[in-house]
Amino acid sequence: MGGGGGAHDPFDIFQSFFGGNPFGGGGSSRGRRQRRGEDVIHPLKVSLEDLYNGTSKKLSLSRNIICSKCKGKGSKSGASMKCSGCQGSGMKVSIRHLGPSMIQQMQHPCNDCKGTGETINDKDRCPQCKGEKVVQEKKVLEVNVEKGMQNGQKITFPGEADEAPDTVTGDIVFVLQQKDHPKFKRKGDDLFVEHTLTLTEALCGFQFILTHLDGRQLLIKTHPGEVVKPDQCKAINDEGMPMYQRPFMRGKLYIHFTVDFPDSLAPEQCKALEAVLPSRASVQLTDMELDECEETTLYDVNIEEEMRRKQAQAAQEAYEEDDDMHGGAQRVQCAQQ
Questions:
Q1: Residue pLDDT, tens place only, 67-78
Q2: pLDDT (tens digit, 9 = 90+) per residue, 84-96?
Q3: 282 and 221 in contact (C-beta within 8 Å)?
Q4: pTM to 2 decimals?
Q5: For residue 74, which of 53, 131, 144, 173 is within the disulfide window of CB 3.0 to 4.6 Å?
Q6: In whole angstroms, what is the distance from residue 168 CA to residue 57 CA?
Q7: 85-123 exposure pattern, b = at least 16 Cβ within 10 A, e = fewer
Q8: Are the C-beta atoms of 227 and 244 separated by less than 8 Å?
Q9: pLDDT at residue 207 is higher than 70
Q10: Does the keyword ATP-binding apply (predicted)?
């Protein structure tokens, strides 16, 4: 945490004893080693079509650049004075009392010089940057989103962040954020589509047109006599997402089928279906067996809601049982006393 607002250069000790830098230069090396500026992160929302086809987006950004008039000195003469607030170190140390005989030292950038360690005379300030050493610039960056890029992937523009004197300029980083698509879902290099069939289509065959992410029309159909079962999946090779940096290779397109059954059938429809569908399993029950059976009634139920309700009920009963046990123990203890 440091013990004062003085210098922290490792070569200052050599300067104190020998009057200079042991590696030459005749003085402190403070300021020679440039620090790196912070990277600027921007989220970039893209559609699934953008990631499938590739796209280019132009974005206008504002950033700080070193003042061209004073070359980043902040003054007309190029001179500056050591900050009196931090004695040129750029840092200040504050002491915080935590308790009796306990203190905490905290180091933070000097507010007077904004951590630079120097100040500029008001009359000598650069008229263009007002002594700030940097000015704002608007710049247009063209971001190329390549085919097959993933959600969360980064596109970096090296050295395009804010400039500052004696600082290595950081990068501008765009992070891709894929927007939800109403029809297609993506998992890696594969695409998934949900499609609902009528019972007639599932049993007798179907065909439909699927518009792909690049606008192509795909004809999806079954083979003659093929039956599609509920919750069945089928795949089409090479119709998934392009692979990043291998755009001519593609994943698979998966289609998940659900079958929409009719709510009810008329008696004549049942007879017509029985004539063409496989016959029902014949179970011969005698009148005596039927007389011994009890009639039951089936009703519709949402099994997920049913399970949640039972779990909540079991938790409530366990809580009440635990509460009764604690209360009973207290009453026995009181009776013994």
A1: 988 888 888 777
A2: 778 777 788 888 8
A3: no
A4: 0.68
A5: 131
A6: 27
A7: bbbbbbbbbeeeeeeeeeeeeeeeebeebeebbbbbeee
A8: no
A9: yes
A10: no
Report the distance separating Cα 75 and Cα 208, nearest Å: 73
Helices within the chain (DSSP H only): 12-18, 48-53, 199-204, 267-276, 287-292, 303-336
From CA 86, how far away is CA 36, in angstroms rounded?
22
Beta-carbon contacts of 217 under 8 Å, excluding residues fewer than 6 positions away, are 209, 210, 211
Assigned token pair, 29: 């090396």
Q: What is residue 74's predicted lDDT score, i.e. its pLDDT?
A: 84
The DSSP annotation for 282-302 comes to -----HHHHHHSPP-------
Q: Are 29 and 21 in contact (CB under 8 A)?
A: yes
Q: Which two tokens stand for residue 82?
A: 């050591």
**What are the distances in angstroms from CA 4 to CA 11, 91, 107, 211?**
17, 9, 9, 69
**Residue pair 73/119 in contact by the 8 Å Cβ criterion:** no
Region of 184 please: left (phi>0), alpha (psi -120 to 50) or beta: beta
Question: Poorest-confidence range of 21-30, 142-151, 160-169, 296-305?
Answer: 21-30
Closest CA to 210 of 241, 253, 248, 247: 253
Give the CB-side neighbour count of residue 331, counting CA atoms within 13 A.
Answer: 6
- Contact of 172 with 157, CB cutoff 8 Å: yes
The strand pairing partners of 186, in sequence order, are 191
First to last CA, the chain: 61
SS3 326: helix
Mind listing the pLDDT tens digit for each residue in 127-166?
888 888 889 999 999 999 999 999 999 999 999 999 988 8
Provide the residue type at 332 as one letter. Answer: V
Least confident of 102-106, 163-167, 327-331: 327-331
Is the pLDDT score of 40 beyond 50? yes
